[in-house]
Amino acid sequence: MTNTLIVGNWKMNNAVPESLMLVAGLEAHIKQSPNVDVVVAPTFTSLYSVGIAIADSGIKLAAQDIFWEEKGAYTGEISGTFLKDVGCEYVIIGHSERRKYFGEINETVNKKIYAALRNALIPIVCVGETLAEREGGKTFDVLEKQVKSAVAGFQPKDFEHFAVAYEPVWAIGTGKNATEEQIEESHKFIRNMLAKLYDAPTANNIQLLYGGSVKASNCKDIYKQPNVNGLLVGGASLDAKGFADIVAQAPGQK
Ligand code: 13P
Description:
The chain has helices spanning 16-29, 44-53, 80-85, 96-101, 106-118, 131-135, 139-150, 180-197, 200-205, 219-223, 240-248, and strands at residues 4-9, 36-41, 60-63, 90-93, 122-127, 163-166, 207-211, 230-233. The longest helix has 18 residues, at 180-197. The protein has one domain: Aldolase class I (TIM Barrel, Alpha-Beta Barrel). Helix content is 41%, strand content 15%.
């Protein structure tokens, strides 16, 4: 049985003052439940202040990226040690925007997952096909390659706290979410693949999230899908009431 996990990915939005206003709004509107984990992922520069602001709220902190080394001459990078230091418990890895704009590839995703686990950070590993890949009938091939190379070299014990987010690239920020059938089909495919690579209990323990144009008005049917354990929300997580409404509709454990 896993908790429902709902993550707000703020992307490159909100300087410190706006970040603090948003978490104040979330604290006011979100009702905590023991079976639902609520996580926010602000920009690197807001992590420290947001971490302090949410310390007693039950809301948890995620970073949007991590570098695979711990320290040294890597200008502009942030390590797991530093993320832990400011209170992060989760880290988003391999988001399609990082793959598209910043040269993230499956091999670097794998190295970043190692770095997250080494620092006891829970990875939220993003996978998903582009529109051309879907239309070319390549969705499952893409997901298989992304997931297999992401988890290469890991043992079942590494998946005790682990999330995979299925985010079809064509559904991100477009207002066009995937249908419930498309979501469940892809989640089931990922779950079965992980069960084959490891074993069923390991696969069932991994939280499979859906992301892509999720909002309060469409989340209910997505939650209902048997292999959906939570959501990765972009745009709709920037509005406290809207995000709280998504959290309020979450089922307990699955
Ligand atoms: P939107 O919810 O804005 O489509 O973004 C999804 C996403 O990329 C979350 O990581």
